[in-house]
Amino acid sequence: MNPQMDYIFSDEMLKLLGQFTSLTGVRIAFFSMSGEELCIGRNRSICGYCAMRRRERGFDNACLANDRQGREAALDREGAHFYQCHAGLCEAVMAVRVGETPIGYVMIGQFRLAGAAESIRNGHEAAAMGNMPVFEREKVDDLLGMFEVLIHYIANHALVGRRDFDLLHPLVERMRSSPEVALSLSEAARFIGLSASRLSHLFTSMMGVNFKRFQMQLRLETADRLMQSHPDWRMARIAEACGFEDPLYFSRAYKKHRGIPPSKREKGVKRKI
Where is the HTH araC/xylS-type domain (predicted)? Predict the structure, then answer.
């Protein structure tokens, strides 16, 4: 199925994306949770510089990896995630949420930051760079502020939606409210009246990660909050509060996904092990 068929874009949203590009000169696009570009303000194509460089396989792969990392970083914050790509160009991405549930992303870029180092190899690339919008640092802050207001408006006024969101939403809210409760894929499927295979496909399509990984993310986020708010708790107590029966499995899972053991998460804070 075409991923665009999963979404409903209002005329007002399409108009707002177009107005953003007209006012700023910056490309803006909506992406699905899995990274497909579905809706573009004024149907603006990518910049000439990127069009030239992305013909190179290695460069294109690096661009896609940058975008993927940017989307992942955006999930961890309420506002926009701003970054510079490997060519020195600027981009920002922000998750569009219904309640606490992300349903897609909006990305702006590329644009140039005045005075930043850029990768230019010849006159053609320099000319293409010269056609891109360029902003001083303080203007970039204003641009990002306007971008965040726009995305909040789109989300709060339900200007974009997912056709199956109402079906999945009760399950996601249950998982968020009780992350410590073990829930198998089969149990979750029965909860919303779907087959396990249908839920697995729908969940990955809408959430951008599979059911098991999403459940793990919620538990580890709970662990992060508890370690922050209760530095005197033993790890066994935190593990139990997050739904881990075995503290050793909790420690291994935390290190696998966070890169450090939970005992070292709060550097410099004394904690009972």
Answer: 169-268
pTM: 0.70
Domains of the chain (ranges; CATH) run: 3-162 (3.30.450), 165-264 (1.10.10.60)
Chain segment 76-131, per-residue pLDDT in tens = 888 999 999 888 899 999 999 987 888 999 999 999 999 988 888 888 888 988 99
Cis bond before residue 110 (omega within 30° of 0)? yes
- The string of DSSP letters for the chain reads --GGGGEEE-HHHHHHHHHHHHHH---EEEE-TT--EEEEGGGPPPPHHHHHHTTSHHHHHHHHHHHHHHHHHHTT-SSPEEEE-TTS-EEEEEEEEETTEEEEEEEEEEEEETT------SHHHHHHHHTS-EE-HHHHHHHHHHHHHHHHHHHHTT-EEETTHHHHHHHHHHHHH-TTS---HHHHHHHHT--HHHHHHHHHHHHSS-HHHHHHHHHHHHHHHHHHH-TTS-HHHHHHHTT-S-HHHHHHHHHHHHSS-GGGSSTT-----
Exposure of 224 in the CB half-sphere (CA atoms within 13 A): 13
Nearest to 183 by CA among 173, 79, 87: 173
Among 27, 69, 75, 73, smallest CA distance to 51 is for: 27
**pLDDT tens, residue by residue, 167-221:** 888 899 899 999 999 899 999 999 999 899 999 988 888 787 899 999 999 999 9
